[in-house]
Structures are given as structure tokens and as C-alpha cells.
Amino acid sequence: xxxxxxxxxxxxxxxxxxxxxxxxxxxxxxxxxxxxxxxxxxxxxxxxxxxxxxxxxxxxxxxxxxxxxxxxxxxxxxxxxxxxxxxxxxxxxxxxxxxxxxxxxxxxxxxxxxxxxxxxxxxxxxxxxxxxxxxxxxxxxxxxxxxxxxxxxxxxxxxxxxxxxxxxxxxxxxxxxxxxxxxxxxxxxxxxxxxxxxxxxxxxxxxxxxxxxxxxxxxxxxxxxxxxxxxxxxxxxxxxxxxxx
Length: 245
Hints:
Blueprint: H1 2-7, H2 13-21, E1 28-33, E2 39-46, E3 52-58, H3 60-81, E4 86-90, E5 96-99, H4 101-106, H5 120-129, H6 138-145, E6 152-157, E7 163-170, E8 176-182, H7 184-205, E9 212-214, E10 220-223, H8 225-231, H9 235-239
Antiparallel strand pairs: 1-2, 2-3, 4-5, 4-8, 6-7, 7-8, 9-10
């Protein structure tokens, strides 16, 4: 039979060597690809009388489906790992299912600190050990009482001075998804804008002239203290955006 398959081009040198030298006294599974591209699962099983039985199954569709699934998984993994924000997915038992590279970095952990199957409490314990909450100790208490059954969002400072926007979103089935975004540039820009606004306000409030600012609909949107006093207005009037006389 082996000789016929070799002559017909069904067996190559490797297949021929395996068929002629296999130890048939024990079970031997094997997978091989045929010349036409189909894939076979072959199982040789010993029989009580010393003989053996060989089963052959065409698993081409299964192998192709597995390859396609692996390719999709690799593509999704590359997309997730390429995201600038961190992602952690936990199941209903609060056990880690999946995460990306940014999640490790933005959690203040090392790659060896995270592994699937860890509980959220265990992840937090690793972060505490790494000193991740040194700049925001209240965050440790927040995590202990956080209700993961509803959306939660907050910001926290990291030891390196950066600021994270953290969101926890419940998932179908009882699990939850946590995302981490580095919003340090935004926070700094907001702080700078507030500082500039406070400076300008101080400059305007200390001028001797009254200053009133109106929008395009001629409604009052800002005024300095002198203008308020001279016009008999209050801050509440500005909030109501009274029209210009």
C-alpha cells in the first residue's frame, strides 16, 4: 500500500518513512497534508491480536477555520495593542480575561505582573506593591468599593505626574471593561487656560475703567467689578445674560 502511494505521488519521503517505521504497538496520531492541499488526521491504534487499525479523517474545513480564527485574533490583537489607551476585560467573577500592552504600562505594572485569570483585587494588590497609587491614595479605597454593575468614570494622578482618565463599563453577562487614557496634555492645557483666565480677570478687575463684554446676540457675558458697580449689576445678572440696553 505504501509503495502504491509513493508511486502515485500521494506519499513523499517523509510520509513513506513514517508509514514504514511507525511503532504500531501504541496509539499514534498524525496530521498530514495531501498533494491536493487537503489535510488529513490519521490515527493508528493497536489491536488485541497484534494488528492495528488506521482511521483517516478529512479535517481541511476545520484547519482552515482554525487558521482564519487565528488570523482574525492576530489582527484584533495587533489593533488592540496599537491603541494609545489601555484596555482590561474582566468576567462576571472579576477575573482578568484580556488586556493590551498599554494597560500594563498605564497601570504601573510590568508584563509579568498581569496574567489571565487574576482577579481585579489581585491586580490592584500588584499596583499597590508597585506604588502606583502613591500620588492618589484615595484611589485604593475607591477601588475596594467600586460598583462595577454601572458605568463609572474618574481621573487620577500617577506617581510620575501624569493624569489618567479611567472608565469602567459593565458588560453583558456580568463582566466589566476598564479603559485608561493618558489625559495629561489636556489637564495641563485646562490648568493653563484657567491660570490665564484668572490672570486676565485680575488685570481687568484692577483697571479703573468698567469693562462689559457682550456676545453676538448683544447679551452680557462678562464684566469687571468696576463695571458691575457703575452699572448697578451683579454676577447673577451676567449668568442670566441680560440684553444690552
